[in-house]
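Supplementary Note 2. Why include the ligand at all?

Several targets in our set were suspected to adopt different conformations when bound, so apo predictions alone were not considered sufficient. For every target with a known small-molecule partner we therefore ran a joint prediction. The input for NAP is given below.
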Amino acid sequence: MVEAVGPDVTGVGPGDRVAYAGGPPGSYAESRLLPAAILVKIPDGVADQTAAAVMLKGMTAQYLIRRTHRVQPGETVLFHAAAGGVGLIACQWLKALGATVIGTVGSDEKATVARAHGCDHVIISTREDIAKRVKEITGGAGVPVVYDSVGKDTFLTSLDCLRPLGLLVSFGNSSGKVTPFDIGILSQKGSLYLTRPTLATYTATRADLEATAREVFDVIREGKVKVEIRHTYPLADAEKVHRDLEGRRTVGSIVMIP
Ligand SMILES: NC(=O)c1ccc[n+]([C@@H]2O[C@H](COP(=O)([O-])OP(=O)(O)OC[C@H]3O[C@@H](n4cnc5c(N)ncnc54)[C@H](OP(=O)(O)O)[C@@H]3O)[C@@H](O)[C@H]2O)c1
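The joint prediction is reproduced in token form.
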């Protein structure tokens, strides 16, 4: 909620419900100063906690599946960490777009959650051979796009899941940074494409930020993407939040309440 604005600020004013993603560090606070240019108004019908849970993760899902690779109905795609914050939003959205979703997760409990959110095929990464299963599911063809936020542990496996000319979207490092590699591997594995995108680039202009946020709020209001917040913590427990996230103990988005 906006408390006050500077003299030259237009577009937002005291009492407006607003949200933002990224921006300068300092979000673990009860109130803060922010440039108005990064704020988006939260529309009616979207609760404060829902907005908090989806601004970064929902806009990330939007650019990944609507812009980095515009997923088409009937395509089969692989999404790692499918029961994660970005993952659960992306799986539901992909399903609504008419895609077949293969998701990886770290446990049976997360597999159940991923299936309930649109994953057609779930691979348990801690005990199954991901590339082998993807080839089985796709009749040996591989997928046109892999969305990989796990990074170090899955990078080479992800390349092996792609069909020729496929695209690896490496958008995170949950398991550590990808080890430097010889780009010749992209030719050997089928003239593959690789991108390492970030939300900041995709929302760098005001027009892109507004269009991205609007699409996220639209799919929520239309019920295509449902956001269940399973983990809410007091802000004072921020350290525990980080330990649980790092320990792979969380499902979906986490919200901290000041
Ligand atoms: N590039 C961008 O624009 C952008 C924007 C937002 C977020 N991100 C990145 O996207 C990723 C997902 O973000 P999120 O907030 O939605 O997190 P998250 O998916 O809720 O949590 C990370 C998940 O990664 C999986 N994982 C696999 N190996 C892991 C390991 N060694 N250590 C920890 N986790 C591991 C775990 O799921 P399983 O146990 O099921 O494997 C874990 O729950 C993060 O890496 C984040 O930095 C990137």
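DSSP finds nine helices and ten strands in the chain. The chain has a mean pLDDT of 96. Comparable summaries for the other entries are listed in the accompanying table.
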